[in-house]
Write a structure and sequence with these properties.
The complex is a heterodimer of chains A (295) and B (320).
Chain A: H1 9-40, H2 44-49, H3 62-67, H4 71-102, H5 110-122, H6 127-136, H7 143-147, H8 154-165, H9 169-177, H10 182-193, H11 195-211, H12 214-219, H13 228-236, H14 258-293
Chain B: H1 2-14, H2 19-29, H3 31-54, E1 60-61, H4 67-70, E2 72-73, H5 77-84, H6 86-106, H7 108-118, H8 123-134, H9 141-152, H10 158-167, H11 177-205, H12 209-217, H13 222-247, H14 254-260, H15 266-269, H16 272-282, H17 286-313
Antiparallel strand pairs in B: 1-2
Helix pairs in contact in B: 6-11, 7-11, 8-11, 11-13, 13-17, 16-17
Classes of the chains: A mainly alpha (295), B mainly alpha (320).
Amino acid sequence: MNSSKHDSIGEKLFDGLNYLFLGLLALVTVLPFIYIIAGSFATEVELMEREFFIFPRDPSFSAYQYIFSTDTVSRSMINSVIITIAGTIANLAFTFTMAYALSRKDLMGRNVIMNLVVFSMLFSGGMIPGYLVVKELGLLDTYAAVILPGAISAFNMIIIKNFFQELPPGLEESARIDGCTDLGVLWRIVLPLSKPIIATFGLFYAVGHWNNFFSALLFLNDHMKWPLQVILREIVMLSQMAAGDMGAMDPNFVEPPDQSVKMAVIVVGTLPILLVYPFLQKHFAKGVLLGSIKG
Amino acid sequence: MNTALQSEIEVSARQGIPKRRRWLSKLKKDKWLYILLVPGLLYFLVFKYLPMWGVLIAFQNYQPFLGFWNSEWVGFEHFRNFFANPDFFRLLRNTLILAIYDLVFFFPAPIILALLLNEVRLAYFKRIVQTLVYVPHFVSMVIVASMTYVFLTTSGGIINELVAAVTGQSINFLADTDWFRPMIILQMMWKDSGWGTIIFLAALASVDMEQYEAAVVDGASRFQRLIYITIPAISSTIVILLILRLGSFLDNGFEQIFLMTNSLNRSVADVFDTYVYFVGITQGAFSYSTAIGLFKSVVGILLIYGSNRLAKRFGQEGIF
């Protein structure tokens, strides 16, 4: 946007410092990840000797072997996968059906319901009443307890509703003339047109489930149902394996490589996010822009 | 479809069909839409509005075995107890200090970053930096806290090794009460200042390039262009985000503080949110902790209305 020929020395200096600062910032963002990944493949001896390194001298999988030597971590990963898949499907089903119904301006009672939704964004009953509702429904210690209370993000629902409202009305009308019910229109016309937005919100909801810690802490006392994030905290921050001392019964037990094990668990928790990040990145600018249209 | 409905209504009105019948015919016509609405509506009623009703236990001595209907009503007793409790001032202080730190140090970070990114002319450099700084937003708070622990521990954490190499002794960041607040704010900046730029960069992208060109013709310096074109272009976005931030002024991010709290830094770490969890869930004082939560929600709603009116008074568009 600027013509670079007429830059003064001051501007050149600013540009140089700006590039330097942003470059360093990008480095500060990624270095922790790189160091953690490298450290997870290092031996404990190397971590003690060489504090600063990027490539381990003799890469070893001992940390990973250690964390998968019992099923604490793998079980929690399975729990996380179940919660993520079931939770995302529930999110999409709840959010899209409601958004479609509310996208129809002539729907009787629409304004009342929209006001209910918006008010719920401003005021909430808080942690304890929410906990008691889940408890009274008998959902404690079930996967449903970490899925249902967050089934709809009001904000997402409103964005999707606005998206539906902007679809060309002619398509729906011609389908209706062909004898489609509202359900048929949603299934055959609207949803196929919404594939990108389904992918976007599906990914965002899925990341939310994979990362969710608080609901699991609140609603799951049963260790067997704990997702990875809870186990991760147990191992790294409370420095203990949740299912008791994992080596005690195992005759082949080797002293845990402390730091590298922690790093390996962090890698296991982060990797799925880093793997979907390119797809997320493709969608999120769009998603956030859609959100800002709301007004 | 609209016209079909309208003519239907007109016909029925002309024929003098009672109102109730029209109501029913509308319900019948849209029956699939209402069926689609049921799950979502149930969700909001059960998981949003039932807890709002449940807030009334703040005025009770709620006993789980007696249930909501049979528990004894005690009026404002829990609120009085809470305000008289020395914990109240500690919590208020911790919450407010963190919120002010957040507003002063974290809130401007994405704005500054977006302005710096906006000055970058090499498109690929800008894209790479953006791609990298967005990543931490998607990583869970547990991961962020875990990495902080691994890096800052006094037993072999890399940052502490660096500190020790420079100053000769390591600092126990994780337990030190002086380091708790800077640590929280730095975590927030690392995690979300990149992500926060998106909304500002979107606002900047919509600025008409001709404005800049005209300014160049008029001899405006780059700094003047920043002050008179770029910043006004994002000022309404800043105001909206500021209102939203003020509305949740007392929300300090439960997960982050919960994860970074330990027995040594508790005196500065306890905030309303985590206190509600410890007293309510861990100790089972449901009514008392609900009262604390309600106090916080009411203050929050007052703050959002107040800041919205303030924004309007200063000639900005509010959010409602």
